[in-house]
TrEMBL record:
<protein>
    <recommendedName>
        <fullName>bis(5'-nucleosyl)-tetraphosphatase (symmetrical)</fullName>
        <ecNumber>3.6.1.41</ecNumber>
    </recommendedName>
</protein>
<dbReference type="InterPro" id="IPR003607">
    <property type="entry name" value="HD/PDEase_dom"/>
</dbReference>
<dbReference type="GO" id="GO:0046872">
    <property type="term" value="F:metal ion binding"/>
</dbReference>
<dbReference type="InterPro" id="IPR051094">
    <property type="entry name" value="Diverse_Catalytic_Enzymes"/>
</dbReference>
<keyword id="KW-0479">Metal-binding</keyword>
<dbReference type="InterPro" id="IPR006674">
    <property type="entry name" value="HD_domain"/>
</dbReference>
<dbReference type="InterPro" id="IPR005249">
    <property type="entry name" value="YqeK"/>
</dbReference>
<feature type="domain" description="HD">
    <location>
        <begin position="19"/>
        <end position="133"/>
    </location>
</feature>
<dbReference type="Pfam" id="PF01966">
    <property type="entry name" value="HD"/>
</dbReference>
<dbReference type="GO" id="GO:0008803">
    <property type="term" value="F:bis(5'-nucleosyl)-tetraphosphatase (symmetrical) activity"/>
</dbReference>
<keyword id="KW-0408">Iron</keyword>
<keyword id="KW-0378">Hydrolase</keyword>
<dbReference type="GO" id="GO:0000166">
    <property type="term" value="F:nucleotide binding"/>
</dbReference>
<keyword id="KW-0547">Nucleotide-binding</keyword>
Length: 188
């Protein structure tokens, strides 16, 4: 137990092959961003591999965890898109035995961002967005901005994600709006 291979095996057990390939690309991208930003590479590796650990769990597992771990009941009004990070971090903690709060916060905040994000949290948020398998119109611009300034990358993603949600009439999680207010006006 405790080896990298054990962790990979346990993650692979919970993910379909495409999702497992994604988390390995996020790991590689996160490690590169860690090197460039003086962040612990091992934490970047573990957080990248585990960020979507809970993505393919049934809704019932999240609902049970929200109750068991006394998370904000308001979460019950959302769904997998929000749960797999915020609630998923609790499953990573209790099932995989990862207790590092910086890693857990990186998982918690990887979808919505947060007002305060540590350098590791910013790295996982960005690695998920720009990993080499991502293909959307602005991704090359996002990669370039993130290579120059990690925080500017966070602002770029936050703005584009919120615009996308609004354009598609999707429900916006209030913390996503808080992230927008904290980050986007800082990088005009
Ligand atoms: O899990 P991934 O697909 O790798 O990526 P992710 O966890 O960053 O994003 C999952 C989805 O969540 C993505 O399509 C954008 C969406 N999302 C982000 N913020 C919000 C949101 N969806 C809703 N409904 N509300 C939000 O505030
Ligand atoms: Fe995710
Ligand atoms: Fe993301
Ligand atoms: Fe992801």
């Amino acid at each position: 137990a405790g080896t990298r291979q054990d962790l990979l095996d346990r993650i692979e057990q919970h993910l379909r092959p495409k999702r497992f390939a994604h988390v390995q690309r996020v790991e590689q991208t996160a490690v590169k961003l860690a090197q460039a930003n003086n962040v612990d590479e091992e934490k970047a590796s573990i957080a990248g591999l585990t960020h979507d650990y809970a993505k393919q769990r049934p809704d019932e597992d999240f609902i049970a965890a929200i109750k068991q771990y006394h998370l904000d009941p308001e979460l019950l009004n959302y769904g997998n898109a929000i749960w797999h990070g915020v609630v998923g971090a609790e499953l990573v903690k209790h099932e995989l035995g990862i207790y590092d709060e910086d890693i857990l916060n990186a998982i918690r905040h990887h979808t919505t961002g947060a007002v305060y994000m540590s350098p590791l949290e910013q790295i996982v948020y960005m690695a998920d967005y720009i990993e080499p398998g991502r293909d959307f119109p602005d991704v090359d611009e996002a990669r370039k901005i993130t290579a120059e300034d990690l925080g500017a990358g966070v602002a770029f993603q936050t703005k584009h994600t919120l615009a996308y949600l609004i354009e598609n009439n999707q429900k916006v999680y209030p913390k996503t709006i808080d992230t927008y207010n904290a980050w986007v006006p800082r990088y005009p």
